[in-house]
Structure formats: structure tokens, C-alpha cells
Amino acid sequence: MDDDLIVCRCEEISVGEIRKAIREGAQDLDSIKRMTRAGMGFCQSKTCSNLVAKIISEETGKKAFELRPSTVRPPVRPIPVHCWIKE
After folding, report:
1. Are 15 and 55 in contact (CB under 8 A)?
2. Higher pLDDT, residue 69 or 22
3. CATH of the domain at 45
4. What is the reported pLDDT for 37?
5. Higher-confidence residue: 42 or 85?
6. What DSSP string runs through 63-75?
7. 36 and 21 in contact (C-beta within 8 Å)?
8. Is 67 exposed, middle or buried (0-12, 13-18, 19+ CB in 10 A)?
9. Total structural domains in the chain?
10. Contact 36, 18 (CB under 8 A)
11. Residues 6+ apart with CB under 8 A from 24
12. By C-alpha distance, which of 37, 31, 38 is closest to 68?
């Protein structure tokens, strides 16, 4: 993959930025997320996590299924839907 290819569309993170983070010590999805913000956008890594895992696998030699899944954090407190509906 070309380094300029965008992997995380929400945060506009490229393959090159992911590779740089791996060279600087990132070895899993969470460390990539912390170093680059890939997976912190609107989709919450539903779109890019498989691509990031593939890049980690290619760069480190680890199998994609060996990587720990990214930590998912729900919103701080739920917001009832009815407060958004005007009467």
C-alpha cells in the first residue's frame, strides 16, 4: 500500500502515519489509536480497524488474529432519545 493512502477517513490518517507509529513502538490497535487518533472518529474504528490490523500484521509479522482488539468505550452517560425530539 502507498504511504499516502488514507486508512482512517474520519481522522484522515494515512498508511504512512500508521507505519511511522509502528516504527516508533506501537504494536497493537490501542497504541496506534493513541499515537495517531486512527479509530477515534465518527465511526469509532468500525471502518478502519481491519486495515490498521493488516498494516500492523505486515509490518511486525504478527498474525492479525493474534492482535488484541481495540478497547471500546461507551459514552460517559446515556442520553435519552426523547430529549432530542421537539414536541
Report:
1. yes
2. 22
3. 1.10.10.1100
4. 94
5. 42
6. -GGGSPPPP----
7. yes
8. buried
9. 1
10. yes
11. 35
12. 31
Domain that holds residue 45: 6-84
| pTM score, whole prediction | 0.76
pLDDT digits (tens, 9 = 90+) for 48-76: 999 999 999 999 998 887 888 777 766 66
Amino acid in the structure at residue 9: R
Whether 1 is in a domain gets the answer no
Is the confidence at residue 78, as pLDDT, over 90?
Answer: no
- Distance (Å, whole) CA 41 – CA 39: 6
Whether 54 contacts 43, CB under 8 Å: no
Here the cell at position 19 is: 507505519
- Of all residues in the chain, the percent with pLDDT exceeding 90 is 56
